[in-house]
Amino acid sequence: MQPIVDATLRQTLATLYTNLGRYDDARPLLEFALATRRRVLGEEHVDTLRSLNDMGNLFEMQGGFVEAEPFYRGAYEARLRVRGAEHADTLASMSNLGGNLRFQGRLDEAEPLLRECLALSQRVFGAERRETLIAMNVMGYLLIDQGKLAEAEPYWREAYETGRRVLGADDTDALVWTNNLGGLLASLGRAKEAEPYYREAYEGTRRVKGVEHPGTLHCASSVASNLQSQGRYAEAEPLCRELLAIRRRVLGDEHPDTLSSMQSLGGVLRRQGRLAEAEPLLRKPLEVNRRVLGPEHRDTLTSASILASLLATGEQIGEAEALYREVLANSRAVWNDDHPDRLITLNNLGNLLVQQEKLSEAEPMLRAMFDARKRVSGDEHPETLIAQSSVAAVLERQGKLAEAEALYRDALGKFRRVLGDAHTNTLSSIGNVAGVLITQARFAEAEPLLREVVAGYERALGGGHARVGNARRSLGRVLLGLQRYVEAETELLAAERVLSIAQGVSAERKKACVDALIELYEAWEKVEPDKGHAAAAAKWRAR
User: Which domains does the chain have, with CATH numbers?
Assistant: First the structure.
């Protein structure tokens, strides 16, 4: 067989294996094709550069972003030299290299490449060509990684609207952009607004590709995730179970997509407080990923973190802490010290240490993580503000209330500016400020903040969501502190009704609401004896 024909066949088979997720089978075929083409055709032949680019893609699909970079960079530089900046292959390589740098968290290096790729695509192909819309979509990803969600929206909305109009509503790329726009709106705290986009993408992909196509299942997973974010766990659960059953049947128990479905279902069960049911679903992906991919693979690190978050919710805090520490140790080969995923893990571990009252260890860890996040993402990135709030929380637990309040208020001002008043992260931040005011018995200052939180959560999540119940309980406590007993009773009873039926509410939180009602009626009895308040307190005490 001619060497080039042999190389072409191996390249084709490698592409097939890569698409099937059989990366170990694809790699030797692709390495052979690349070596043959380099030897016979030369370093800068179009087919050699295609093999070089595909090697980068293979490494990236396996989570080897650092290993992929020299292949992507080599293909880009050679295509730029041989074919010029405005050739379609060069622009594709520019996008691949920029995307790779973005995955590594090197956003400052990725940005000029991706911006130039978009500008050149607009000039070469025009505003309505598929290549331009893809570049626009990738630019949106970069802005999201930079925490500039509001800036990303017009890019993704234009890709959605233009793609739908020019390519058709059932075009496969247009359907991806529809799903992406739903995800962005959800990230902006507009979960209800996001839902129809998710459903449009799901129904269109199912119509075009069939019920069991991976793209259809991905869109179904997005719908389920959106339902979870709205607290509609009972609706999300059957969809998650159906997804898992299909992927098990079509792909097998150990396929990455099947493991992802296990994690999604485990997450739904966890949020309903069904920790014992969730745990085996979250342990399985970690066991498989450790065995198949190794302890340092990105998917292994992610599955370990997901399991740790479940264990931290229950009574296995020691194992959760060990898992977070394992992730940090094993990630050295994948993440540098300032990688965003490593900083998230540090934040989670620090918060777990606070939960265990290991405050002297937690504070320096969270402060260092906060400083790194500011350095990497800037002072106003949402993840930076979450990190800032974590530092404030440990200070609050240490009794350093003035310092904690200042950090909480600064974070709140930035959340309002960056995400808007209605975003759930902003509402959570308002609750943090109110909480530290309650600790200082500054109830009059806390009241308007908590009323804003209650109203905001009701609009964003619906009146029956657990966050609404928790916010109304806090408002009831404030009104009790102000000795406005009638209003306090209204809020606490409403909170108890929500928390008693909302999914995912811990027994501890339900008890805290009942305890607040008992405290209310006991205090009310002292002010207005013989009005039935003592009996009301006794009734709640007996529950």
Answer: 420-543 (1.25.40.10)
